[in-house]
Fold this sequence. Notes:
Blueprint: H1 7-28, H2 38-43, H3 50-61, H4 64-76, H5 83-106, H6 111-118, H7 121-155, H8 159-177, H9 179-208, H10 214-224, H11 247-250, H12 253-263, H13 265-272, H14 277-309, H15 312-318, H16 335-340, H17 347-383, H18 389-410, H19 420-428, H20 432-444, H21 450-469, H22 485-508, H23 528-548
Amino acid sequence: METGFGFIDYAVFTAYAVLILGVGLWVSRDKEGEQKNAEDYFLASKSLPWWAIGSSLIAANISAEQFIGMSGSGFALGLAIASYEWMAAFTLIIVGKYFLPIFIEKGIYTIPEFVEKRFSTNLKTILAVFWIALYVFVNLTTVLYLGGLAIETILGVDMMYAIIGLALFSAAYSLYGGLSAVAWTDVIQVIFLVLGGLVTTYLALDTVSDGAGMWEGMKTVYNAAPDRFVMILDESNPEYMNLPGIGVLVGGLWVANIYYWGFNQYIIQRTLAAKSLREAQKGIILAAFLKLLIPFIVVIPGIAAYVMVNDPEIMARLGASAMENLPGVGTADRAYPWLLHFLPAGLKGLAFAALAAAIVSSLASMLNSTSTIFTMDIYKQYINPTASDKTTVNVGRISGAVALVIAAITAPLLGGIDQAFQFIQEYTGIVSPGILGVFLLGLFWKKTTNKAAIWGALVSIPIALFFKIGPKGWIEGDMFPTLPWMDQMGYTTLLTMVVIAIISLTQNKGENDSKGIPLSKEFFKTGPLFNIGSFIILILIAAAYAFFWK
């Protein structure tokens, strides 16, 4: 079987690249006699329709973390990792109904700007610096590393050159055009992402069934590895510490999901650029439906790869080339790139274009949001408060370029990580609980004070480290058992909220804070399309868990 890239594969990928760059640069152009202002560059002139918002949310979210990292987790532990996707659909409904009305009513550019309006400039600056560091040293760096790993595995290109290529590709249109270029190209990226992902899934399952089709392949995979189709793991499962059974549904996964979808600048920025609140909510519902589909694109191929690697008959059929870059224990993240080698000519190029679309769209989104936070919350706050629109846009471009260079230099240092998706979630989980606690109480409890929020954000870090490092490090005995990191996130969030509540009540003697947000039931009313869509999504999630519970 031919495993290398042929002319038609390169042609398909080149067509994709030309299309994305062409659309990105066309959308980025300045209209005759006009120049981009801050709202044009950072919020796409607040003109995005629902279908562009929903597509862009998924394109920003689905990256190498999912295609490479989540497929690797599918290989290592199975369908249980799909909880991130299916519970995210539920989370999106909550964000659309309860968070978006407040954010859009406030007319904000960035999440730190909301912090300033609700709490103080000091807390805004603390969180702005934190988010910039997180995006540069964790998000951008990880996506570049995993993207470079994929290209190195698939094409044999040296990782450093692959990283530079991805960085330049994403910068080519996103730094010049801003959110408009990112969002509109994301519509195209999602088409490649979904179509290419489904093609890979179909052909992987068809290969498992020796050409008998996808359905037969699915039955073969299920019968060969039934343990890989259990959604709720028990304590005997070696992966229980990563996905702690029922705790996934009622515990720390909510922390990860609500933090990510509700208070993450490079995600929420798309909804802030909507034509209206109703348009943003419709986009949220589209994204939620697409999230239900994602496990079939990224997790099932990983499980199929696990069955293929452990079946001597299939491996013999694939030939000697199948032994190259073989995924296994400690190298699970090779699963998706390894699968691409066995796709037919042309479809291999399409699948690679889907992977590139996932990587480049996320890089572009992260760059845009990093530059937005730096420009609006640092530069205009402390360096040049009277900056003109032209200066503001140029600073956004320069700061994005600097962030990309730093991430590209740092990315190769991540070599050797297995199950990168789990790695990212675990270490982001040290800081996300505190931020989530601050936001939840700040949004919905009018007694929350600025002083309490600052203390809560700061105290949450040592609380999280106490759980993570483990008290056994300095306390003898088994009184303090090691907890799954997802449970650690849940407990850290609850303790942080307790700290914030105690300080707020002590400081204000039970009175409402002067910056508390007045809310009413009318504020959270949603349209019939949002309500019907939400109901259907919840039924589908319940059915999926009922079918794959054990």
